[in-house]
Structures are given as structure tokens and as C-alpha cells.
């Protein structure tokens, strides 16, 4: 990847909402435009709840990485076809209990529009799709909602050859993620009625690059006893930082050209668990508001991580239960089959180097009939946390815990 970044010319964004201040939005037509901001506090809370679950099931010393925005979006498309208790469980887990589906649909329409608009140069692509079994027809209303509110592309797949269908979906996702995710779907249920697909692709160039000549081998302290060798990048610049002694953390923001920044949260040595225990949207907000410009010599490892999650059990633990069992009510999606969600998969990859960051994620929700037959229808040298945030929409695009930058 080194050298592959071209220089993007970014159009200054009209909608320069200050991420830190709710009360200040110097926007001419703010009400409609800001409907996406309705989602941001809820999506952030869901992100932290999910982080805690994913982290708990990750083997000690391994890294955690996912796209909160991608997962919230895929589950919101699912909820658009759910009714009754199935719908309430999805909404309450996503944090949307105070909203109705119409509001959520409109908010996503606005959010996807804003994310698309702010990145003419393909720096950020968030999109959705539906792969439909060729002889399955969901309700027209549902497809219309997916098309208009979630900008979904819709394509048919031939499930008489499940491997080909999986290959077709994988080709679609690979194309959208610039080949960063090539096997979003590993095996496909031959009875599958449809699959909801979300992808997120981000490529950002640091506002100030690290100089490759300064990159050197250095120690990274995985824990009190283990040390690994990393390629440590170095840059001497003005950065926004905040040293939060009370909360045992150093926070540094690395802006990309454009509207997005990386926030690194570096707990004091040995304090990762404590910081992880309390970290939430409020802390991120507090830190974002507290950073100040300082001259910094920043040492940060180059790293690449990837992760692959099956989310069904975690989502069940978080309260999405009926969607996966006999009680599933997807009557908003189809009158026909007794549909149930059989699988929710998430994959994510992240590369950080001297030039910037490239990250991608896919989320797939596989929906099949229950019966099985389808009816006709600073020195970052200790473990740290990473957040990639899109400012105007306050979206947590990606989130990571890096315990060991050398573990893929
Ligand atoms: C430190 O990390 C190494 C490598 O991941 C692991 O084998 C070891 O058990 C860890 N030690 C402690 C005290 O956590
Ligand atoms: C959703 O909520 C909005 C705002 O409270 C309300 O105007 C609208 O009628 C509601 N829609 C439905 C379908 O309940
Ligand atoms: C994705 O496919 C389209 C249409 O075939 C093509 O024009 C585009 O270059 C592809 N994008 C990538 C990143 O491969
Ligand atoms: C520690 O975090 C809490 C919660 O975000 C915040 O209220 C407090 O001000 C923080 N301490 C410092 C010194 O920033």
C-alpha cells in the first residue's frame, strides 16, 4: 500500500457542524439536514455496548476491530421489515426506542446522503444492497424503503448454486471495498430468501504525513511482560492532544484531509482494563472537547488488523432474540415464508501507515425461511483504542483496540 495514496482535493464542506457543540449549527437549512444527527448518540451507545461484548469474547492479547456504523445500518434495514416484538427488540437494542421506523428511515436517508456528499473523492463510501433469491419477492413497500431510505442496490442471486451465489455477493462487496474484503460471505444457506448487505470503505490521507525515513524498529509493550517489535512511525507536528490524568489516559487526534479524524485513546500503562470499563460516548465527547494544540513528537506504530465476527450470539445477548427464532415476525418484509435471521456476519480490515489509513467493513444479514423451503416469494507503544470519526454526522465509522500491532 505505501505510495498508493493520491492527493485528494477536498471540497470544503458546506455543512461544517462543530462536532463538539450541539447548540451551534451554522446551517441554512439545518432541520432537515440534521435529521441524521438524531441517530449519532444512539449509534455511539450501541457501538460501546457492542465493543464490550466483542472484546469480552476476544482472546487475550488479540485485537478488536469493527464498524459500528455498518452494523447499526444493516440492523436498521432489517428492522424496516420487522413487526411486533421482533421490531421492538431490534429498536431497543439499537437504542432507537424513542423513535419510530419512519424517523429512523429518514435519518438514515439523510445520513447516507451526507456521508456520500462529503466525500466526492471516494474517500468514504457507505452503502447497502439486497441479494434476493431469484424466486422470492418481498413486499414492494419494503424494497421501496430499502431503495429510497437506505440507497440499497437490489440484485437477484441463483440459490440453486449456493457457491455461485456466495461468489457473486463476495464480488459485489470486494468491488465496493476496493478488494479489501473479498470473502464477506463464506457459506450460504441454500434455502436463503434474501441477504441484507452493508459495506463501508474509507481511505484517508493524514493531514500531515509521517516521513518514511523516520520509521524505525521499536518496542511495543503488549503487557507488563511481553514486548513485540513494531515499525514505529514518527512525526514532529502540532497535534490536538489532551492528557486526562484523572482518567489515566492520553488522547490524541490525527486529522485526515477532509472531515474525518482518528482519535487515539492511550490508557496509561496497565490501565487499559480500567479505561475500557468506563469508556462511553460521554468520555469520547469530553475528550474531543478537551483537546488542545500542542507541539508533539508522535511515535505511532504502523499496523494492519483484520477481524471476522459472527454476531448472532452477541446480538441475542444484547436483546435481539425473536429475530433469530420461532417468534420472528418479519411481516413487514413478506407475507409468505416464516422468515428468520440465520446469520449476521461482520468483517473489517484496517491498515495504518505513514500516508494515512485504509479501512473497510462488511455486514451481512442472512434471512431464510424457518421450515427450510421457500415459498414462491504520543508514544503509542502500549495497547490503545482507535476511533475513526466522521465529523459532520458524528458517526463512529470504525473502532478498534490494538493490543498487539504485529498480530494480524
Ligand atoms: C502478556 O502477553 C503475552 C503474549 O500475548 C501472553 O502470553 C502473556 O500471558 C501475557 N501476560 C500477562 C501477565 O497478561
Ligand atoms: C413517527 O413519529 C413522528 C414524530 O413524532 C410522527 O410525526 C409520525 O406520525 C410517526 N409515524 C408513525 C408511522 O408512527
Ligand atoms: C467496481 O465495478 C465497476 C463496474 O464494473 C467498475 O467501474 C469499478 O472500477 C469497480 N471498482 C473497483 C474498486 O474495483
Ligand atoms: C474524567 O472523565 C469524566 C467523564 O467523562 C469527566 O467528567 C472528567 O472531567 C474527566 N477528568 C478530566 C481531568 O478530564
Automatic annotation (TrEMBL):
Boundaries of every Serpin domain copy: 48-405
Entry GO terms, CC: extracellular space
GO molecular function, one term: serine-type endopeptidase inhibitor activity
Signal peptide: 1-20
Record keywords: Glycoprotein, Signal
Superkingdom, taxonomy of origin: Eukaryota
Protein family (similarity comment): Belongs to the serpin family.
Protein known as: Alpha-1-antitrypsin-like protein
Organism, scientific name: Channa argus (Northern snakehead)
